[in-house]
Write a structure and sequence with these properties.
Elements (H helix, E strand, L loop, with lengths): L14 H6 L1 H14 L6 H14 L3 E5 L2 H11 L7 E4 L6 H8 L3 E4 L11 H6 L5 E5 L10 H11 L2 E5 L7 E2 L2 E2 L6 E5 L13 E5 L2 H11 L3 E3 L2 E2 L10 H10 L3 H19 L5 E2 L7 E2 L5 E5 L4 H10 L26 H9 E4 L7 H15 L1
Parallel strand pairs: 2-3, 2-4, 4-5, 5-8
Antiparallel strand pairs: 1-9, 6-7, 6-13, 8-9, 10-11, 12-14, 14-15
Helix pairs in contact: 2-9, 3-9, 4-5, 4-8, 10-13, 11-13
This protein binds pyridoxal-5'-phosphate.
The site of pyridoxal-5'-phosphate has 15 residues, from helix 4 and helix 5.
Length: 372
């Protein structure tokens, strides 16, 4: 291989977007220092409105992380001990962790092997008289089947909570993800499609009462200062984070378009590579490619990852162990073959908005060499 292939291609590189906006980002931080208001100041307020407008939802409440957004959504819906919440095992741990953190029991059901999101028929089959909510995850930036899930949830009176941590800006039927259920949870973890400079998250909903309860919960369960009415949390989006995220929000559509362009290049360069299954996007879905995740079906996934690493190409496995197989959920004892198979085959290739077609080609060449 030519020496060019030794140029490092990281799994993700967000420095270009931060350089691009550096002057504005620094100015945003300085303005917060100048004002001296660091908790629930004007930037949090403005950012909440800007995200609500962007998504097309009535209410957005800034919190400390995506994980806390899920916890507050569940608490605001008064879901807790004795309740079951149906979710996917093929997700980041936080989805299930939030359910357990409020005292409820996660019930894991299998995934659609083509899109890696939860399978509606499996959800329907798992409903019991203890089920209170569903938490689908728009994994890798691809929408979960919200229409089918809403049809299942409604007759049972179940809440539909979207884990939209990986899908900021994505759409289903032209509507933004995070606005399709009763409540949505967003994450601004630095590597997410809209990433901050530390932890951050947001709860979205059209339900004004639910939004009010989330606002109380994020400030120690107090409607008014020192009049605490429930056991809450200290989980606010920081003013500095909000000020910096406001600089980035107007650019997120362009960055998502760039991710889609990178995905098209991958589709093209991997099209005829035997042993590689490229990601499917269902009609009516606008995929925002938080990850571009292929399957290496031959049992060679770890070999491919290792070889690429030798060529300084970074890849990631999201997720090597499905959540129901983690020791903390060992007692759940479910057997979910599609999720387990996926965990052994998935490989997320380098993906970031500023990635060039040449870099995509080098990754594809590297994979071809391994599978030859
Ligand atoms: C990142 C992520 C979360 C948690 O978000 P944090 O902001 O890191 O707490 C939850 N669910 C999914 C699917 C995620 O990818």
């Amino acid at each position: 291989m030519s020496s060019e292939t030794n140029l490092p291609i990281p799994a993700a590189d967000l420095r270009p977007q931060n350089y691009q906006l550096r002057t504005q980002l620094v100015a945003a931080v300085e303005s917060v220092l100048e004002r001296g208001q660091f908790i629930l100041g004007p930037n949090v307020h403005a950012f909440e409105h800007e995200v609500a407008d962007y998504l097309g939802v009535a209410q957005a409440i800034g919190v400390n992380s995506g994980t806390d957004a899920l916890i507050l959504a569940l608490r605001a819906l008064e879901i807790g001990a004795g309740d079951e919440v149906i979710t996917t095992p093929f997700t980041f741990f936080a989805t299930a962790e939030a359910i357990s953190a409020v005292g409820a029991d996660p019930v894991f059901v299998d995934i659609d092997p083509n899109t890696f999101v939860v399978e509606p028929e499996a959800v329907a089959a798992a409903i019991t008289d203890r089920t209170r909510a569903l938490i689908p995850v728009h994994l890798y930036g691809h929408a979960a089947p919200m229409n089918e899930l809403a049809a299942i949830a409604e007759p049972h009176g179940l809440a539909l909570i979207e884990d939209a941590a990986q899908s900021f800006g994505g759409r289903l039927d032209g509507r933004r993800l995070g606005t399709l259920g009763h409540v949505g949870a967003l994450s601004f973890f630095p590597s997410k499609n809209l990433g901050g400079f530390g932890d951050g998250g947001m709860v979205t909903t059209d339900d004004a009462e639910l939004a009010e309860r989330v606002r109380w919960l994020r400030t120690h369960g107090s409607k008014r200062k020192y009049q605490n009415e429930m056991i809450g949390y200290n989980t606010r989006l920081d003013e500095v984070q909000a000020a910096m995220l406001r600089v980035k929000l107007p650019h997120v559509d362009v960055w998502n378009k760039d991710r889609q362009r990178v995905a098209q290049h991958y589709d093209h360069h991997l099209r005829d590579v035997k042993g590689v299954i490229t990601p499917r996007t269902l009609p009516d879905v606008e995929h925002v490619f938080h990850q571009y995740t292929v399957r290496i079906a031959s049992g060679d996934r770890d070999l491919v990852a290792r070889k690429l690493r030798e060529h300084n190409i970074g890849t990631m496995v999201y997720y090597p162990v499905p959540v129901h197989r983690l020791p903390v959920y060992a007692t759940v004892g479910a057997s979910l073959p599609m999720a387990e198979k996926a965990a052994g085959e998935v490989l997320s290739l380098p993906m970031f908005p500023h990635m060039t077609e040449r870099e995509v080609e080098l990754v594809a060449q590297g994979i071809k060499t391994c599978l030859r």
